[in-house]
Specification:
The complex is a heterodimer of chains A (about 1100) and B (about 300). Chain A is an alpha/beta fold. Chain A is about 55% helix and about 10% strand. In chain A, helix 27 packs parallel to helix 29. The N and C termini of chain A lie far apart (about 95 Å). Chain B is of the alpha/beta class and about 300 residues long. A five-stranded parallel beta sheet of chain B has the order 2-5-8-1-9, sandwiched between helices. Chain B starts with about 30 loop residues before the first helix and ends with a helix. Classes of the chains: A alpha/beta (about 1100), B alpha/beta (about 300).
Chain lengths: ~1100, ~300
């Protein structure tokens, strides 16, 4: 049938319908066959014929058809029309809306879903009053909603709408409208939001619309990645409590908005925990957090939170009051916490302090209480590299003000460093004691007195002694005693006693704080009277060492001995006392204490003794008298019947003193020595081996182990000797050999590489074991950096505005040299007065005057070219320790008004600094530097490098040497991001080639990295580190040969270790504080080039 | 009536150190200097600031000039040895704009005539003084070349403008000081220059010695001086850990003087040591903590 036939059929309807039909006809006819067209037109006719206004629906049907024909196959088109018909049977208006929306929806749905979609609308229509409006609205909005939801989700949404409609059709209509407005803007948070809404519909349908109204604004205040969790939290709160969720969203997000984004995760974690126990307080908690965080750090917040949870567990109302900040308990906790000093904030200060005192590279590590045995291992490698680790507790909060808490840290650090400073670990049999006569050397050769003969098979007689030479002196010393543990405890007590006295003499400024801490430690000591006799006497020594000399309880029968102990310990308080004196004192004390049976003493036998006041006559003790007394004691003990002896137990540690492991330290230093002797840093003793050695050295030796110790000692010696013979020093640098050497074992190692791409370059690599280059070993590809957003450049400058202008000003100060007046020129802009006068003088005096009397201002004086090589290895993605962010909090002003200002400024900074990576700081430094460099006109290039394996070294051009600073360059900087490994050698070589092409008087190569060079396949296993270091070193030397001054800047705290080896006489710097990089880099550049 | 002159002025070549400067030898540097002087070997003094380079030169100048010193070779070959045999000290602080003619001399206009005016170096060469070029790397490159003929077997100073060559007096000696601490690639001595000198290295003296120096110079009590020396030792441990230079003895002496005149020790050290050393807040705090540990 032709169009005209139909036009006749439609005569009865208004003209517009016929027009719509004829307009659609042509387009439809292109797609459909004759029969199909008829079917299509017929269904239009059917619709039109239904009732009064249904022709309007039919009109929309025709209007939508051209688009629909394109979108769905005929089968579905038919169904589509059919559904329109069904809807029109109910309401022409709904059907119209259906047809109107169809073209948009059809694009978003699978063809077979279109009927389903229609059916959903039909379902809504069946819901009572105002169903028509609801259904119409449904069709109106779905087009927009389907942009963000899948069809199944739409179905889910409709279910929600339905259940709302059951209660209120108006509400359902409002809900649908708001869904359209809000959902598309939520993007990836749409689904979590829907699940929240479905919970609400289930719990309290009236909140659903309200929730959608606020959710968009609320989410904008929450850190992006945390948004779905935040919604899930709201859902849980809705499920468990009777809470107005729109209000919850509004208020909690407002609170979160006041907090730095990177902290949100912690707060939400805690809120999660809380929501599982008591959902009602979650809002109070979140609302309270900004207040709390103004006073304490995030770590302390956790402590506060945990306290609150405990309170909550006991008493729900108390908990609510706690979190809303209404309870005194909460206030107290905060007060205490805010007075505490966290290690993170003072770590750097303490590190430098310890460094100053000890002259060693000291690492500050948090002290972990649970695992005191293992804590030595963490620092193993570091200790080998000459240094020490000072363990400090993560937070000091014993005292009620910051000063005392900080002082406490200082005392702990000073004491631990005192071990190094006053040489606790350098015990030697050869150094004479200053306060005692020499007993050690007599004893060490003789069999320990009281040892039973049968255990002394390997007793140290003359021959054994020779074998024992490999032992550290201190190990031999302890081996002298039958009860090693007792000896160790005594030694620890007296050595600490010596150090404490020494510190107080050497550092009078800290004396007061030290005494405070000692007093506090005294309060924590066990009660003497409850200890068995021998332990009581050891405890007595510790009390002496803590400078308690009075009101000490001693069993009556031992009071004379206690007095003698005091006399023996006393000389150690003199400044001349050495560790050897502690050892001698230990021998004497041991003689006494080991004789005293470790049995309980009846209560009534204890009596109070004062030691301090008694003047013990001369200095030290009378050796003969002591011997005599000892004899007496032994006799008296033998006569006394043996009571029940208890096994001896070591006294608890004095907390500020930490672990004291003299043997461990001496073994380590012996190993270190032997390593040093070897010179070359070739093969090292493997970590496992070392751990074993140290574990053995660390074993407290008990009576039965004396023999074992000897054997271990021998092992230690052998190990050192063996290790010492390994490693061949290879230091010579040979000229590179570019010829292809086919003799390389290509199978195993891979051979030289070939250039396959135009922007690729081949470089040799130095193999220190061969003492030669591996030719054509690394393939480097030069690439342009991808371009990002140039706004990054400007934003960085803005956020560092103060610093940027400061640096720029400093650089401008260099200008006089850059724009130097050139004196005494043949020609120039002006006459130079001095020269003219001189010329006149010359003329008068009869000599011919110089013609060089002009002054010229010239820009060419400064002739510097520099290349910045940026490490883009994956490790630069590491986040910077966030506790450092708060490091300056210590300097908070006391005055409340000032404090507010300070706080505000700090918070402002905090937002900017949230979650920064090392690479971000590298980038920011570059931006600042570029900004400054532009003022002085040096030629500079910026390149990044990374890669994976020798055939994949990527060299990114951020700014080529001759390239002017353009928007392009700025955009490239934005794209600098962490990639793969760090193979420095080829990158340096390539940069050198670039610099070498340039004609400048002074050339620099500045390497900015975050750690040692490392890459896959840097030679064989075990020596990668050395290999990488050597190659990098050689490449730096190559640079220098070409007249380029290399400089390495690293942010790796351990950088001192390898940089010293890598750079040796070349310049390098280790930044202790990564945050100082943006400030430091320009300053460094200035210093280097002026 | 003429006003009474309230100051003392010397002609540069007549400036002779009359009082014995206080100097405590750390090692054999005095002996080395004496031999070098007798053998006319130019000397390069290396070391960070405040380690006593200038004082050492003054001391040696005095010591060598003492009549009794056996080194002084006053063999009368026409040149008049000054009455006492003392040796003048000519110190020239080098700066970036120091030119060759600043050292050698220039013609000046006087009335209608020109008059040649000897520069300090020329004067020192003539009278036989010890010429001390302080911080020589700061000077322009052409000046360092100028001293080359003075520092080898030739021992003369060419004066191009007058077409003259001045032969150095036998007592003349050139001493340079230089601080290798700056890591500036642009400021280093050329090898052709530095290989003309015998080099003495100066570093901070050991604590006991330093304490004595501080005590003598500042008048502080022995205990205080020892504490100051200890502070010096400890802060030097921070070198290369943020500090570019450790504290020099001079600063410790300042601190000692402040303390001696009633300033509280902690405060004195703060202003004379901590703040003088660094602007880095973290470092300042660390140094302050050391100060607080050492001083009450």
């Amino acid at each position: 049938m032709a169009l005209s036939t139909y036009e006749e059929k439609f005569q009865q309807f208004p003209k517009e319908l016929t027009e719509a039909l004829s307009e659609a006809w042509e387009a439809v006819a292109k797609v459909l066959t004759g029969e199909e067209i008829e079917a299509w037109a017929d269904s239009g006719l059917t619709i039109a014929q239904l009732e009064g206004r249904s022709w309007e629906a039919a009109k929309e049907y025709f209007k939508a058809s051209p688009a629909m024909v394109q979108a769905i196959p005929f089968v579905h088109l038919k169904q589509w029309g059919h559904w329109g018909n069904t809807l029109a049977e109910e309401s022409a208006a709904v059907s119209m809306a259906y047809f109107k929306a169809s073209p948009q929806v059809a694009k978003l749905l699978k063809p077979w879903d279109v009927p389903e979609w229609a059916q959903l609308g039909k379902k809504l229509y069946s819901r009572g009053r105002r169903a028509g409006v609801l259904s119409t609205r449904y069709f109106e909005v779905t087009g927009d909603i389907l942009r963000v939801l899948s069809f199944s989700e739409l179905q889910h949404l409709v279910v929600l709408v339905e259940s709302i409609a059951e209660r209120s059709a108006d509400e359902a209509i409002a809900f649908l409208s708001i869904s359209r407005d809000v959902l598309p803007s939520l993007r990836e948070d749409t689904r979590p939001c829907l699940s929240l809404v479905s919970i609400l519909v289930r719990e309290d349908w009236q909140q659903a619309t309200g929730c959608l109204e606020v959710v968009e604004e609320a989410l904008s205040r929450v850190e992006r990645v945390e948004r779905s969790r935040y919604l899930a939290l709201a859902g849980r709160v809705a499920e468990r409590g009777d809470i107005n969720i729109p209000a919850f969203l509004r208020e909690s997000s407002a609170a979160l908005g006041q907090i730095d984004g990177f902290i949100h995760i912690h707060i939400l974690n805690m809120a999660d925990t809380l929501s599982r126990t008591n959902a009602e307080v979650v809002l109070d908690y979140i609302k309270g957090v900004p207040q709390v965080l103004r006073r304490v750090s995030i770590n302390q917040l956790e402590t506060w939170f945990e306290t609150g949870v405990k309170v909550l567990a006991d008493n729900a109302e108390g908990g609510a009051a706690f979190f809303s900040g209404e309870s005194t308990r909460s206030e107290e906790v905060l007060e205490r916490l805010s007075m505490g000093v966290e290690l993170g904030r003072v770590k750097e200060v303490m590190r430098l302090y310890c460094r100053a005192l000890s002259a060693l590279d000291v690492e500050i590590a948090p002290h972990v209480k649970e695992d005191s045995q293992g804590k030595g291992w963490v620092a193993l490698e570091k200790m080998m590299a000459e240094g020490a680790t000072v363990y400090l507790p993560p937070v000091a909060e014993r005292f009620n003000n910051k000063e005392e808490n900080f002082d406490w840290y200082k005392v702990v650090a000073t004491h631990q460093v005192a071990h190094l400073e006053f040489q606790s670990f350098n015990f030697s049999f050869d150094t004479p004691a200053t306060q005692f006569s020499d007993m050690r050397n007599q004893l060490v050769t003789s069999v320990p007195e009281a040892a039973p003969a049968d255990e002394q098979d390997g007793a140290p007689d003359g021959t054994e002694d020779e074998q024992a030479i490999g032992l550290a002196d201190i190990q031999r010393f302890f081996a002298m005693f039958v009860d090693g543990m007792l000896a160790r405890d005594i030694f620890t007590a007296v050595e600490d006693c010596r150090l404490d006295h020494r510190v107080k003499i050497e550092y009078p400024g800290i004396r007061q704080a030290y005494t405070n801490v000692q007093r506090q430690s005294l309060a924590d000591r066990p009660v003497i009277e409850e200890l068995p006799a021998r332990e009581a006497l050891v405890e007595l020594l510790i009390r002496f060492s803590l400078q308690q000399g009075r009101e000490l309880m001693v069993p009556e029968r031992y009071s004379v001995w206690a007095k003698t102990l005091w006399d023996i310990v006393k000389p150690l308080s003199r400044p001349q006392a050495l560790v050897e004196d502690s050892a001698e004192a230990t021998i004497r004390l041991y003689k006494i204490i080991s004789q005293i049976p470790n049995e309980d003493v009846p209560q009534e036998e204890w009596e109070q003794n004062d030691f301090q006041d008694e003047q013990s006559g001369g200095d030290g003790i009378d050796e003969e008298q002591l011997e005599q007394m000892l004899k007496d004691l032994m006799e008296s003990q033998q006569s006394a019947e043996d009571g029940e002896e208890q096994p001896y137990q070591s006294p608890p540690q004095v907390d500020y003193r930490g672990d004291f492991k003299p043997e461990l330290m001496q073994v380590i230093s012996m190993l270190r020595e032997s390593q040093k002797e070897r010179g070359a840093k070739g093969d090292t003793i493997s970590k496992e081996e070392m751990e074993r050695l140290l574990a053995e050295a660390n074993q407290p030796v008990s009576q039965s182990e004396v023999g074992d110790l000897k054997r271990q000692g021998i092992i230690v010696t052998d190990e050192i000797k063996e290790a010492g013979s390994k490693g061949t020093p290879q230091r010579t640098v040979q000229q590179s050999n570019y010829s292809y050497d086919p003799s390389f074992d290509e199978e195993e190692q891979g051979g030289p590489l070939e250039i396959k791409a135009p922007d690729a370059f081949l470089y040799d690599e130095w193999d220190y074991r061969m003492s030669d280059y591996r030719s054509r070993w690394c393939l480097l590809r030069e690439k342009d950096m991808a371009e990002g957003d140039s706004a990054y450049f400007n934003t960085t400058l803005e956020s560092y505005a103060a610093l940027a202008s400061q640096i720029r000003r400093q650089f401008e100060l260099m200008m006089p040299q850059g724009l130097q007046k050139m004196k005494r020129q043949q020609d120039g802009d002006e006459l130079e007065l001095d020269a003219v006068i001189e010329a006149m003088v010359d003329k008068r005096s009869g000599t011919s005057p110089s013609e060089k009397v002009y002054l010229r201002r010239n820009k060419v004086q400064r002739d510097v070219a520099v290349v910045f090589l940026l490490d883009m290895s994956a490790s630069t993605a590491e986040a910077i320790d966030e506790s450092r962010r708060l490091a300056d909090e210590w300097d908070a002003p006391d005055d409340p008004l000032e404090y507010m200002f300070w706080l505000r400024s700090r918070r402002g900074e905090g937002v900017r600094r949230s979650y920064k990576r090392i690479v971000d700081l590298e980038k920011e430094s570059l931006v600042l530097l570029i900004h400054a460099l532009e003022t002085i006109g040096d030629t500079y290039g910026i390149y990044g490098f990374s890669g994976y394996g020798r055939e994949n070294v990527d060299f990114f051009v951020i700014k080529d040497l001759q390239e002017p600073l353009s928007e392009k360059v700025k955009r490239r900087i934005d794209k600098v991001s962490p990639l793969q490994a760090t193979r420095m050698g080829p990158a340096i070589r390539h940069a050198v080639v670039k610099l070498d092409r340039l004609d400048a008087r002074t050339k620099f190569l500045i390497l900015i990295s975050d750690g040692r060079p490392q890459d896959r396949g840097y030679s064989r296993e075990g020596v990668e580190k050395e290999y990488a270091l050597h190659d990098t070193r050689i490449s730096l030397i190559e640079a220098r040969r070409k007249g380029i001054t290399p400089f390495c800047l690293t942010v790796d705290k351990e950088g001192h270790d390898y940089l010293r080896a890598m750079c040796q006489d070349m310049g390098y710097e280790v930044l202790a504080d990564i945050h100082s990089l943006p400030r430091r880099l320009p300053a460094l550049y200035r210093r280097l080039t002026v | 009536m003429t006003e009474k002159q309230t100051y003392t002025s010397y002609k540069t070549e007549e400036y002779i150190i009359k009082e014995e400067p206080f100097y405590l030898p750390v090692a054999d540097e005095v002996e080395l200097f004496e031999v070098a002087y007798s053998q006319q070997l130019p000397i390069l003094l290396k070391g960070p600031t405040g380690t006593g380079k200038t004082r050492f030169v003054e001391y040696m100048c005095y010591r060598l000039g003492r009549p009794l010193t056996k080194i002084t070779r006053s063999t009368g070959d026409g040149k008049q040895p000054s009455a006492s045999g003392s040796i003048p000290l000519m110190t020239i602080a080098c700066h970036e704009d120091l030119t060759a003619s600043d050292l050698v001399g220039r013609y000046l206009l006087e009335g209608d005539e020109t008059k040649w005016m000897d520069g300090p170096l020329a004067r020192a060469v003539k009278v036989g003084a010890i010429c001390y070029l302080d911080e020589v790397v700061e000077a322009r490159k052409d000046t360092t070349v100028l001293i080359h003929p003075l520092t080898d077997h030739r021992r003369f100073l060419p004066i191009d403008k007058r077409g003259e060559i001045i032969e150095a007096h036998e007592r003349f000696l050139l001493v340079l000081s230089y601080n290798p601490g700056y890591q500036s690639a642009l400021k280093d001595l050329k090898h052709s220059t530095r290989q003309r000198f015998m080099a003495l290295e100066f570093s901070a003296p050991p604590a006991e010695l330093e304490a004595k120096i501080v005590e003598h110079e500042s008048g502080a009590s022995p205990e205080m001086s020892l504490a100051l020396a200890k502070l010096g030792e400890k802060t030097r441990n921070l070198k290369d850990h943020g500090l570019q230079e450790g504290v020099g003895t001079r600063l410790l002496i300042y601190a000692g003087k402040l303390i001696n005149n009633g300033i509280a020790p902690r405060r004195a050290c703060q202003v004379a040591v901590t703040w003088a050393l660094t602007d880095d807040v973290q470092l300042q705090r660390s140094i302050d903590e050391v100060v607080h540990s050492i001083f009450e």
